Amino acid sequence: MKLLLASANPGKLREYRELAGESGIELVGLQDLSEIEEFEETASTFAENAAGKAQHYSRFTSECVLADDSGLVVPALGGAPGVLSARYAGPNATDQDRVNKLLREMKDKKGGERRARFVCVTAVAKQGRVFAMTSDSAEGVLTEAPCGTNGFGYDPVFLFPELGRTYAELSSQEKNLYSHRGKAFRSMLEVLAIR
């Protein structure tokens, strides 16, 4: 089965290809369809954004389209950055800009106030119709400074307590085993297998 991944993020495409592994699913990045008008993620939930993105891009191809919306939820910040995780520090901000803003806002938070959760919702659509959705999350704690060089986004400040390391300190295999995206995608593979 071939899936078009509705993301121009090279880190996300790399993760999904690793997650697909030997599943028989071939993942192709959205940049291969560069003439398509970009979908604006304006919904207030991860599920609505994932479904909207999958539905939008599936209208331009005969292939099934996999989309996700994922982000970091920090209860002490009222759920921010949440669905705005990628745009948290502005439209042209880098991963480092977003991490720096988050650390500034967390500066005076201690103990349980530093709890955070990564959330991922995946959706698959074909020809404008969403036919599968899955979601999962991973609980962690925000560090006071970035640690590690792997991964992308907020990985350097998201400490995964079970392993005592940030996502950016984990190998890609370890991260894929425990991450919100890994768990949500494995659930999607199960759904697609019985379809």
Written description of the protein model:
The protein is of the alpha/beta class and 195 residues long. The chain has a single domain, classed as Maf protein. It is 29% helix and 25% strand. The chain is built from 5 helices and 7 strands. It has a 7-stranded mixed beta sheet.
Quickly describe the structure:
The chain has five helices and seven strands.
SS content category: alpha/beta
CATH class, named Alpha Beta
Overall helicity: 25-40%
Task: Tell me the number of structural domains.
Answer: 1
Summarize the helix and strand pattern as letters: EHEHEHEEEEHH
**How far apart are the first and last residues' alpha carbons, in Å?**
12 Å
Number of helices: 5
Low-confidence stretches: none
CATH topology: Maf protein
Corresponding CATH architecture:
Alpha-Beta Complex
* CA-based gyration radius: 16 Å
* Counted beta strands: 7
Spatial shape: globular
Largest sheet: 7 strands, mixed
Strand content: 25-35%
Average of pLDDT: 92
Which strands sit side by side, in order, in the main sheet? Answer: 2-1-3-4-5-6-7
Q: What kind of assembly state do the chains in view correspond to?
A: single chain
